[in-house]
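Handout, section 3.2

Students often ask what a structure token actually looks like in practice. Rather than define it abstractly, here is a full record for DUF4352 domain-containing protein. The first block is the sequence as you would receive it.
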Amino acid sequence: MKKILVFMGVLLAFSFVLVACGNDSSNDDTSKDAVASDTKKEKTKEKKGVIDSQKYTLTWSEDWKGLKTSITDVSVVKMEKSEMESMGLTGDGLIGVKFTLENSGEMDFNTYPDQATILVDGQQIEASMVASDNIGGEILKGAKKEGVVAFEVPKLDDVNAIKQLRLKWSANYDTENYEEDFSHDYDITLDLK
């Protein structure tokens, strides 16, 4: 029980770091690459178990048939081994990617950013379903979801050394017309500066 409470506390703190510095300006940039802007080093408060952290504000977004997907923040956090172990994790730290999903289309979508794969410093990492917010699955017409997808980084020496992330995940919708383009694969590169 104590492990779960500690894990939830760190996840909550991690989410607050991302949400507190969110970007509320809209941007219809549909490019596959994004550059971080307004880099802010979070040093104001020491969080339990956090050795170092770096937060980046981004403006990446893509609209596919009315499903607008945005990435507004990326946080890189190096954790103490004991803290990672208390959460049932074995890596050196976490990378959190804040997603906003908004369905203004004509149908319901299925999207799975919480099952994404990330490439960082030569390490291919699957999203941590345990440490991530539940934002994947069906998103109904007119719905909006926000949440952080967390990736457990096996080897993380310096949070400032992470300069680029590549993310891959998919989305689709149900249709009876199989000649229709009913699925979409996201493959994006985020430059962190």
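Discussion prompt for tutorial groups: The radius of gyration is 17 Å. How would you have guessed this from the sequence alone?
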